[in-house]
Amino acid sequence: MRIGLFIPCYIDQLYPGVGIATYELLKKLGCDVDYPENQTCCGQPMANSGFAHLTRGCDKNFISNFKDYDYIVGPSGSCVLHVKDHLNSTTEVQACQKIKHNIYELTEFLTDILEVKALKSKFPHKVGLHNSCHGQRGLGLSSMTERNLPAFSKVEMLLNQVEGLKIERPKRNDECCGFGGTFCVFEEAVSVKMGKDRIAEHEQNDVEYITGGDVSCLMHLEGILKRQGSKVKTIHIAEILNHD
User: A Pfam family this protein belongs to (predicted)?
Assistant: First the structure.
């Protein structure tokens, strides 16, 4: 299988190590991975603000970059979900539908397509797990507490394979961190308060790191942690799974 590596723009600009870790991890697992160098923003910020009709240029570029791959994999649940839900084309309908069907968030790809059962990763630390809303409620990466269904978590399935890692869950296991894309700009006070509440529960568990599958959420929490002078750090799950 040929995999196109989808690295969202904010990861490329601010957290390139996450993109590198994702690439290295997929290569370690035997995947044939390409990084299309002409990729840009997927258009999610515009769509989140009610201007999905202005993403046509982003859609056209995304299709041009990724239409020939068997799978597209990205380390960001929110961006992957945006492509699944909003990618559109009036001229390349078949290619568009193929991409929407074959794009996967990283942990989803590892569990559902590669069916990874044993990793050689080591990360001897106490880690708090943050379930991002887009991954959980949009992509179904984990169960939701408000639904009376058997509990599951694709993220935890992978973290449980990491030697030395101890997972700690906050009391409200699937509460939003408050980032919400442009929400953190338009409703700054509410966003920060939600983030502080999330961090307080993780700090009660005395964790060393907070991890998750969305850099956007981790970036939001990292900013609050630094302003509070906390010793807790954030780390994307790709960086943990790629850690020897």
Answer: CCG
**Is the model's pTM score more than 0.70?**
yes
Nearest 5°: the CA angle 150, 162, 144 is: 25
Per-residue pLDDT of the chain (244 residues; tens, 9 = 90+): 899 999 999 899 999 999 999 999 999 999 999 999 999 999 888 887 888 888 899 999 999 999 999 999 999 999 999 999 999 999 999 999 999 999 999 999 999 999 999 999 999 999 999 999 889 989 999 988 888 878 899 999 999 999 999 999 998 888 898 888 778 778 889 999 999 999 999 999 999 999 999 999 999 999 999 999 999 999 999 999 999 8
Domains along the chain with CATH numbers: 2-113 (no CATH), 126-241 (3.40.50)
Q: What single-letter DSSP state applies at residue 161? A: T
